[in-house]
Amino acid sequence: MIVDPPYCRFFRDSRRICFDLRRVYGASWAVFRVRSWEEGFWVEKRAGGRWRRDEAAFDYVLVSEEISSLPADHPLRAYHDTIPANMAELAKPFRQHQLRALQTLAAYPRASDLIQQNPLIFWIATTLLPSEPSADAIASLFSLRRASILERFFGHGSKSLVRFFGKLRNPTFEPRDFAALKKLKAAPEVAWNLRHLPTVDWALLRFLLGRQELFRFQAVRNLLRNMPEKAPHRLILNVESLLRDVLRLGETLRPGHALEHVAALPTMDAVAQIHERWSTDLNATHTQRIIEKYGDDLPEPLFPGTDSIFPITTVTELLEEGRAMHHCVGGYIQTLRTSDTYIYRMMRPERATIEIHRLADGKARLGQCKLSHNRKPSPETIAAVNAWIATINNKCLYHERLLHE
After folding, report:
1. Total domains present in the chain
2. Which of 165, 189, 192, 367 has its CA 20 to 30 A from that of 41?
């Protein structure tokens, strides 16, 4: 976000920048000032007719490609150009706590060694500073060993944890990344399960921190020990989808026992084999036996079909779809009964099975679209499905506007 005049002003004599955001926030307190590089980059807030230091009041990105591309007379660009170029380049990746990073580099230039060698540990250290750090406090913290910095944040520190942070690749230094660090603090076993990898993609770590239940599966743990370097995040997404499907099938065929059985499987190949076997077993099960267990009715889909897309409204139709298409949609009985998920049969441009989710705002979102034997549909088919969903959502918007008129 770029703050333009008249909301900001650069003072060339003092090399400070002031932000007046009272009209933005509708509050008299929203006036901030950042001191010059030479003064330590302190943040101040106008209160009671005086400037008072308040580092928590303002966390704004002041170094970025976007700012350096502004006209030279723009206040942000003018202030940006007062920062030593090498230090600005080091701070540029940080989208959160960037001011703290700049304050650190201004007060203790030797911290640049840490930021170059392990920017994540540097980033963590900036959050450990007191609310209004002095130059001595900054120097004291950033003079510590890396393990000691990690110990202050995580409650434990070791050479192995330092090595793990050295393996992390491609962090974005955004708020969601810092949220992931807090999750790692509460779940150190995630780092333990990834310690064997030569490098750890940040997106993979963040995903696994939100899916810690995956570690209960022996196949996942074994996969992570030999994770390919290319597209690990995409691979683990596919793994999660397969596990979700096989557990859904298992609970339909053998309630209460599927999780324990699947969790003990040693490889994802073994999981895929069980998925194929249970899918075949379900599709071979006599429809009447399933209906006796679950009943035949399914919730009526809220989204209408078309002349080539038809909603599936009974367990009988669902099982027939699974048999005809040779996939596991028959295992969705419980899902369809307990969530806003619906299944549709598509006849053209290709024969396909479509999974649709109803979102909280009433709109439709595509879950899956599969041909027989779980093959991927053509771009033409996906375009047709997306066009159908767009029509549904446009109608939702239309009805929403009518309600507000």
Report:
1. 4
2. 165
